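User: I'm curious whether this sequence folds into something compact or stays loose and floppy. Could you predict its structure so I can see for myself?
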Amino acid sequence: DAASPVSFVPISEETVEVVSREDNLVILRGLTGRIKPGASLKTEFGTGVLLASREPLGFALLRESSSSSSSSPSSSKQATLLAERFKMPFAAEAAVGHVVGTFGERADAKTSEAASSGSFQATPPTSDEPGRELLTEFPDVNARQTVRASMRTGVASLDVLSPLGRGQSLLIMGPRESGINELANNVAATTGKDTRTIYCATRGASTVEAFAQAASNDTTASTIIVAPREQDAHAGERYAAILTAISLAEDWRDSGVHVKLVIDDFSAMPRFFEYMLKTEREELGSAGIDSEAAEMVEIDGTLMSAVAAERRRFFGILMQSAAAMSEANGAGSLTLLPVLSLVDDSFVDGSPDAALAALEDAPTGDSVAAQEARELATGKVKRKLPSREQIMAMSISEEQRTKLLAAVEAMEASSSSETSEAEGVDSSSAYNGTFTRSLAEELMSIADGQILLLPKRNKHRDGLAASYRPDVRNTVSRLGEDAAAPALRSIGISRVRLGMMQAWDSVDVLRMKGGNTNLQRLQNDFDRAATVYRALLDKRDAKLRSLSEIAMHLVIGDALAEPAKWADEKSAADATAASATAILATNPASYDDLFDKAMACLDANVAKSVDETSKLTKEGKQAFMDAACSALSEKF
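Assistant: Here's the prediction. I'll summarize afterward.
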């Protein structure tokens, strides 16, 4: 069209200026937006791929470096962006059982060695057929179908409190030591007869080694490991590794395959975005970013700064790759599970531990406001300052930024290494969680759900060594029961989480108002909810749960909460349930014996049918109830 602006005329290449280079990351100037991220790049010191742009700046990662490359090129150096988009050197199916690096190249030596210990091949595959492009458009609503099929993990707390559906995006969140990577490894290692897995190890050898230990031979036969090409990689390299993993996952998804993609650390996303903002300030000054920070735009009915809106789109491009494709588009699916390491205490503790402490303090009539005032006065609560990277990404004035940075420096100068050692903190490490609450909530608003794990330092009062403990209040799947296994839906798993929430909320009301005439009833309700919660905790080094085992835990909890449903004589049922609740509250370890008795009473054919079909008939449900009733009556 002769009337079209020049910027819309297709071009085959574009010449831009090379501003600087850090490791393999090249900063470009002069982009016009006519060539999009994912394009191939040619420079006199190597070829690469354009990862992202903030016009007029671009950020590209080198694939091959020439021996004459310079880390600080002069302003006269130029690069050529090609309209031709980079394609993976092989299809996803060819890479099964391999560990591959960014862009399908070789991962660093330590990571390859760690992967080979788990029977993965340390070198990428060779193929004559290229794979999928990087950074393709995510599927629109017409190409998708509603997520209804369950992707069971064998992790009881996840399968019940936030069931995972094929095509869903689910965040695995928690402080660094909460077990988030342990949970992610177990989910990644779960095998399914028609499911593929991609494990994106942005942190390299450390997480690959842990995953390789959790993986079985069946896992290796259906899994690809993707990792950066070097240890301690730049955020740009780690971001490119995520793009590589998503490209392979999309290749499977669009071929009609069901694939789950687990990303061991999603911090490369905000850190690379922060790096782009920092570079723009250094190269172009802060005027443009300050203007974007002041400009307000509306996204999904919410007003936010233009910078925040761009960051949301940056996250959303990757999150939207999770999809269940329609029958016309192959009926495959991509289930996305990124791990978010939170700044400690980003969220209020929503565990029975916190509720129990409040319940035990409730008769004093102490208010929340009084407790918080006392904690602040005694120094039990310390206000946390954001990291330098978080400050640089904030939509604030330069004056405010300078003050915050000065405060961070003063705080670091005043902290002693002795205090760090006493608290068990590695004083040499600058890494203490990446995602603040506001940043986590930004991703939560995009994802289909999340499981939030509590810090391990908050030990459970029964002393059980749980690998990870979910925060019931902040753990949720926005797909509801549709994502749950049919057998669990027939039991009514939504009532399980609702019962816990009601017990926790009742404690909160009591804490706020002080005193309650029905304190004993509240204690009983809480103890029943806490018993079910403990039953769902996954013990360290224990095998993943079968579907019939998870179902039995829920049925026992149902029997305790509503005894009239499983016994003919209501008075006898009430007495048995009251006795069981009281004993389990004071001696939670006795629950394991109760569960073992219930499983022994269950017809083996019923259990086998549930595990193989994921369905529970009316007769099968009654068999579970009868087994739970027999075990409760015998034990209590």
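Summary: The two ends are 83 Å apart (CA to CA). The mean pLDDT is 80.
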